[in-house]
Amino acid sequence: MKLTGREKSELIGEGVLTVILLLLLNLSIFILLNGALKSNPGLSSAVYIIKSSVHVGRFQLWSYQNVFIVLMGIIDVWVVYWRLERRYKQMQLRHIISELHYIADGHFDHRIPFELSGDHQKVVDSVNSLVDSVIRSMNEEHQLKQSKDDLITNVSHDIRTPLTSIIGYLRLIEDHQYRKMDDVFKYTHTAYLKSIQMKSLVDDLFEYTKVSQSDPHMKINAISVNPMLEQLAASFELEASQKGMEISSSCDPENLKITGDAEKLGRLFNNLISNALKYGHGGHNIYLKAKKEDSEVVFEVSNDGEAIPQSAINKLFDRFYRVETSRSKATGGTGLGLAIAQSIVEMHRGSIKVISTDKLTSFIVRIPIQYKEV
């Protein structure tokens, strides 16, 4: 910590004043001691006997004046050091308080820059850590607010579009703006498709908010992985065949088990498989794989369809995000499926990532074998 010129002057003045006071105190004690020796012959004789007995040859090693000077010198040095050290620590505290006021005035990117010793350094470290924690909390709060605003904006936009179409077609019917009943059936069918689109969005939004709760309700049970994957493959077999794709599953070892929420894990893999069916253009196969690695189960949901652009990989799990070339409204996607999948994985203390090449696009999910409460 760098002292100012004024603070250096304070330390020098403190040292000089302390030395003067100590010299006056030493002189007073010395005068009182001399007076006591002169007024007390017995004490003076005792001092003389001790003095005459401590010598080497012709050299006298001891006198009470020398002992007094040495003792007082040691004590004086310690007192001067103690007072200067105390004043210096007070100056350190002033600097810390000044830095705190500077940060409190809104300079949240500032940190106390100097290094001290002892407890004061602990105070500096604690202040810097506290400021970092506050900044993180503020950023998280800002991101949460921005996230809520984006959620409302996106939901409003995605609901308004089909709702506008539904109102428009129903108004045509209400105002009898049709020539024949075939037109009525056409309008109602279009309105029906738009309402299904709205329901899909609302259902996905409800599911996302449910799995994103800070304290989601979990029904933890033991789950046999191989039967779960086989059941998933069978449930999507018809839809896959309609798209010219085959779906297969494998598990290593076959008797592999995990603990988790079976319903939510089912929704997780449903979303990943549906995603592969919708966007795996040009693909012929969907692979469901599971294997044990240490204390985790690694799941892979892969397809050999069109690769995902690398620029979109980091955004896939954002709410309402769609890759423009394939994830359009024509596919029926709401942009919430992968966000829901990520939330379910995080609920199970796991992780999810995407690897996409021209040969294979794989969603890799890692989930601990044994679910643990936080």
From TrEMBL:
SUPFAM superfamilies per the UniProt record, alphabetical: ATPase domain of HSP90 chaperone/DNA topoisomerase II/histidine kinase, Homodimeric domain of signal transducing histidine kinase
Pfam families referenced in this protein's UniProt entry, alphabetically: HATPase_c, HisKA
Localization terms from the record: Cell membrane
Membrane topology according to the record: Multi-pass membrane protein
Any single GO CC term annotated in Swiss-Prot or TrEMBL for this entry: plasma membrane
Keywords tagged on the record: ATP-binding, Cell membrane, Kinase, Membrane, Nucleotide-binding, Phosphoprotein, Transferase, Transmembrane, Transmembrane helix, Two-component regulatory system
Gene3D superfamilies: 1.10.287.130, Histidine kinase-like ATPase, C-terminal domain
GO MF entry, a single one: phosphorelay sensor kinase activity
SMART domains, sorted: HATPase_c (SM00387), HisKA (SM00388)
Reaction equation(s) it catalyzes: ATP + protein L-histidine = ADP + protein N-phospho-L-histidine
Cited InterPro entries: HAMP_dom, HATPase_C_sf, HATPase_dom, His_kinase_dom, HisK_dim/P_dom, HisK_dim/P_sf, HssS/ArlS-like, Sig_transdc_His_kin-like_C
Enzyme Commission number, as recorded: 2.7.13.3
PROSITE patterns: HAMP (PS50885), HIS_KIN (PS50109)
Sequence intervals crossing the membrane: 12-33, 62-84
Signal peptide: none
Occurrences of domain Histidine kinase (ranges): 154-371
Domain of life: Bacteria
Presence of the UniProt keyword Nucleotide-binding in the record: yes
Top enzyme category: transferase
Residue stretches making up the HAMP domain: 87-139
UniProt key word Membrane: yes
Name of the featured protein: histidine kinase
Taxonomic classification: Bacteria, Bacillati, Bacillota, Bacilli, Lactobacillales
